[in-house]
Write a structure and sequence with these properties.
The protein is built from no helices and 16 strands. A hairpin with a 3-residue loop joins strand 10 and strand 11.
Length: about 190
């Protein structure tokens, strides 16, 4: 195949509107927009095999998988799904957000999630079936992406800003003045 050519693809009757994918042990977990979560065996790349799908009944943007659980930014929620048997996904937890959960990152037992209008959510998932909201920090702009760098959550917003928040001390999060913002020229 030459650069720029479209590769041959295996066909499936499974509709897909993928926004994010996470692969764990030869299994692809797809955040599939209006279709929720798709789970596909990709251990044989030339022969992907759909295993399961789970409707979230909301727009699903992001998925991360760890220790048998899938964490989804879906609708106005962090949605937690037991995927220990990928062919039988089972919802086990839900943490509501304000408007539209857009992106998340998992670090140990914490999920850092951004909601488009609700800002940064920090959620304890030490027990995924009893997830607890630890903090919610409203932010200016429309938050669309989050990453971690050391002790900082870095949030990108739709208006062209990067916001860095020190999340090392959750008890002092709301009193913190070390929130830095860098705005790109328009």
């Amino acid at each position: 195949m030459e650069w720029g050519q479209t590769p041959a693809c295996a066909n499936s009757n499974m509709p897909i509107l993928a926004h994010d994918v996470f692969v764990d042990g030869g299994i692809a977990y797809v955040a599939d927009g209006v279709f929720g979560l798709k789970i596909i065996d990709v251990s044989r790349p030339g022969r992907p095999e759909p295993l399961a799908e789970l409707q979230s009944h909301a727009y699903t943007w992001t998925v991360h998988v760890a220790e048998g659980y899938a964490y989804l930014a879906s609708g106005a929620n962090l949605w937690i799904v037991d995927v220990s048997d990928p062919s039988q996904p089972r919802p086990v937890g839900l943490v509501p957000t304000r408007f539209a959960a857009r992106d998340l990152v998992l670090d140990g037992t914490y999920v850092y999630l951004v909601d488009m209008l609700g800002g940064l959510y920090i959620i304890d998932v030490a027990n995924p079936e009893q997830a607890k909201l630890l903090a919610n920090l409203g932010l200016p702009g429309t938050s669309v992406s989050v990453a971690l760098s050391g002790s900082h959550a870095i949030i990108a917003d739709q208006e062209g800003a990067l916001i860095a928040i020190d999340v090392s001390d959750l008890d002092g999060l709301y009193n913190r003045r070390e929130i830095f913002c860098f705005r790109f020229a328009k």
